[in-house]
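Please study the protein below:
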Amino acid sequence: MIEFRSVSKQFPGGTVAVNDFSLVIPSRKTTVLVGSSGSGKTTILRMINRMIDPTSGSIEIDGEDISTLQPVKLRRRIGYVMQNSGLLPHFSVIDNVATVPILSGMPKKKAREQSLALLDTVGLDRSLAHRYPSQLSGGQQQRVGVARGLAANPNILLMDEPFGAVDPIVRAELQAELIRLQRELDKTVVFVTHDIDEAFLLGDQVVILETGGHIVQVGSPTEILSDPANDFVASFIGADKGKRALTIRKTPRGEILVDSEGRAAGVLVPAQDGADR
């Protein structure tokens, strides 16, 4: 469990990125921080692994105050995946993935063997192991970035808009891959995005933020969609328009769902056990 207690961050020059932020991030779930630019979501994420230190307040991981921990050691036990993958261009795929385990003292041969297995985990062919990042597609680079984030077998995986730079088809594939990985690996994932559709797809817990890290609403996608906290949230999630505002239309062949512009959006099917998020 990760807990923020009255955390604030003021940068040199006076900009307050986060002001009095408190939140509990449950273990083995995916928590998504979503908001527009300036909402403090990336600052909040980077405070978890001490890439940024708070000006005031405290952050605990499983009851341990991270300010008492050495930053580099803390980062090596927390996975981190960023936009554009952040791969080392002069390292091969296998050596990019093996970087953190080797820095943590794992023998190079063992780290490389583990890296090959991780390529399987993230859906990459082992034939790519000795290629360089420039020889990969954007989607392949992001998968390598996820494999590198998992290389130290962390309990916590931080993901900072990791799919924002790829095309919509690849993005959908990567989102589906992350859902599969979370189901199999059971990590505590903290995911940052500005896309509410991505937040609702991936998040067990969704945190909607305004400027300064102010929490407007926190809950499951179902809770937020069914009961927006205020007009801002309703507008942000598009509760009253587009594909969110669905109605039932009767046709000669049965009932279908249509969006606010009258376009067919789907059909009603019986709910499956555990489908409610």
